[in-house]
Predict the structure.
Amino acid sequence: MLLNYNQLGRLKYVLLGITGVICLFLLLPVIFIILLSFGSSQWMIFPPPGWTLRWYVELFADPRWFEAAFTSFKLGLMVTVLSVILGFFASYALIRGRFAGRGFLRALFMTPMVMPVVVVAVALYAMFLRVGLSGTWLGFVIAHTILAFPFAVIAISNSLERFDKAIEDAAILCGASHLEAIWRITLPSIRLGLLSAALFSFLASWDEVVVAIFMASPTLQTLPVRIWGALRQDLTPVIAAASSLLVILTLVLMTIAASLQKVLNR
Amino acid sequence: MTSSFLSIRNLKKSYGEVVAVDDVSLEIPRGEFLTFLGPSGSGKSTTLYAVAGFDEITSGDILLEDRSILGVPPNRRNIGMVFQRYTLFPHLSVAENVAFPLRVRGQDRTTVKKRVDEMLSLVRLSNFADRMPAQLSGGQQQRVALARALAYDPPVLLMDEPLSALDKKLRDEIQIEIRRIHQETGVTILYVTHDQEEALRLSDRIAVFNHGRIEQIGTGEDLYTKPATRFVAEFIGDSNFLDVASVADQSNGRACATLPDGTVLDGLSTHHVTRHSGRFELMVRPQWLAVAKEGSDGIRITVKDVTYLGDSSSALLETGWGQAIWLKGPAATLRGLTAGQTIMVGWDFAKSELFEI
């Protein structure tokens, strides 16, 4: 190895220090918001003068918060399913197909990821207004699927690329039809790729706010949109409580994914 | 036409302008171990894949027991195949891998279980039934692949360089296993390799491929002792090709050649001389050459280098006209040679084949 950690001597402590500062920098806002959500000050004074669960009680007492969270969750699931299915078909064509314009198509699939989100949001909003999809579930699902799709394509393409086509051929020679070979051999073999595609797709929708603001209607609001709206009305620590729950669910999902990967990798 | 078990007739496969297989015909009897031997890009794998059915062929026909299989999709051809790369299904155990083709065929649980046990004991991996592919060595993986390919009793087994990813020692071991399994099952095997030693060891017959065509087909001994083309002579065993200045006919199909240094050699074989180009080379195996007494028939050469190889030694020699040739022989007979020495070497000229170039 070029740089051996154990041979760094005193430099080791410098390195440790820098790592610590970076971790703190990344984690501080999250820790800050979680602490505030338990603080007793109505004005979110830091450090909190006392501790309370009041904001959580208020959060759960207000059905609008629960509704928003449930909307986010349902939307996330629908986006996940669509994005993984479309992502698999697209990836299969990109990796296994032999046709002109594959490189172009691949780049095209990535555009929602590199385009400024605001541009995507305004464009979709303008189009959805014309076709009557704005403020509807369908519009919301389509919009978020567009954002999630590149993540699914990346994750699934990568695992398909590493999965030798000869294995699929072997299954076909064994007597399986092409579809059967994909269903019984290819899909289970790339399940890690599918899982991370699902996870990233869900998260792409779950914590997305810009497009969601344009897609939302007074009756159809995701959790990030609700937080955003509440922030603009009044600065209550209930928002901190809601945000904390959002962060925690994300963390839980990541942990589940990581441990699933460990199990499947064995 | 006589009915052989598997027959490939005038097979042609081109990719756009590139002709990968050019008019290949083969008649293969039941139970034969036939090897396609040739350099990469010679069309041997393409021919094998045509039998497997993955690619549409350009023209020609492939018949199994007198019925064309061209219209049959690969999953209905009932053909077994072991690939060059490891192709075990990574998410299934060894036993489940071998069971896969049987399950696809809808066989019941007990039949499948019995067959899987049989197959695993055939490849001597019964104790590995519950392992996952990632826990096996390369050699073990290929043996499981072999068991899987044979599980459904295919009439033909295709093997596409199955041992090329393994190291030498393991290769030798598995070659013996493959021979044994061929003898025990009697399955017809088409085997692709670029390794002549492997081909000689395993096969009943060898088809030598070059530029999409079969240069010669025959037993290993045929190919070695009676090569039909210069390419075969070069590919099977080691060969020297001496420059020839001119050739004069003799009676009884033999010829006499004059080498560039004026040496005249009598009684050479001319099976493959058409006299189109008028330019010739003389094939001499390094093992045929031996140090000769001064004044006997042979050529005068200068010793350049002698290498000791254990059982044998090899010597790099230079002819009077500056061509480098090899001599190989028992270490004891070459012990006296030193670099710079000029000696006579001779051989049995009747074995030596003239090739037109």
